[in-house]
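Re: the request from the purification team.
They wanted to know what the chain is likely to look like in 3D before they choose a buffer screen. I agreed to run a prediction and write the result into the notebook, where they can find it.
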Amino acid sequence: MTPLLDGKTALITGGGTGIGRAIALEFAKAGAKIAVTYRTHTPDDGFRAQVEEFSASPLVAHALDATSEDEVVATLQAVHRAVGELDVLVNNVGGLVQRSPVADMDFGLWRQVMALNVDSTFLMTHHALPILNDGGRIINIASLAGRTGGHPGATAYATAKAAIFGFTRGLAKELAPSCITVNALAPGFIEDTPFHDTFTTAASKAATVQSIPAGRAGKPADVAGAALWLAGGLSEFVTGTVIDINGGQYFG
């Protein structure tokens, strides 16, 4: 059987750790050439070796501040030179920055959260479109927080992730004539990620897991599996959709 992404090229932002790393590995197993960007989590040798073993192609990795337009342009030019046209773009960069109620939040922090989550998605998409093949796939990583408002101190983050839903739906309509699909994934509580390692206490983790009907926390691989389906040919009539990945914790 031919691998699902055989001959395809995928770029995953924030691909050095957590969900982005899992997506890169899953795509590599499916036969894709892989490029990733990273900022604080440099791809380690083990990850690089796995990607290259599965995909039989060198991993292309570039350091990137995805909120900087100049850096985005330069990185995409370098990726294009290294791997050619893209078939899949995964906008995975994002983060909470810090927990803060709106009453205590200064405008600088608000803008930082919006830039990291919303501006980065726009910049990567806008500048990747000229090198994205017709029939390509764009997958935006949102969050359950965009549905529910998030936990205390995460209003800015929840707002940014809700914006990703609107961006996904509007862009899906714009790109449908080129047979490019645009979808979003909204993960719930996913362990083994920098997000929860940094911002979620052990007590909060335990309480959250107890609230999940599936009886366990999610794993990065749970998100990667859904991303693989969206990246392949089986989902070509699916666009403008948000897929919730939360073990039954929330139904949209």
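For the purification team: The chain has one domain: 9-245.
Please add any questions underneath this entry.
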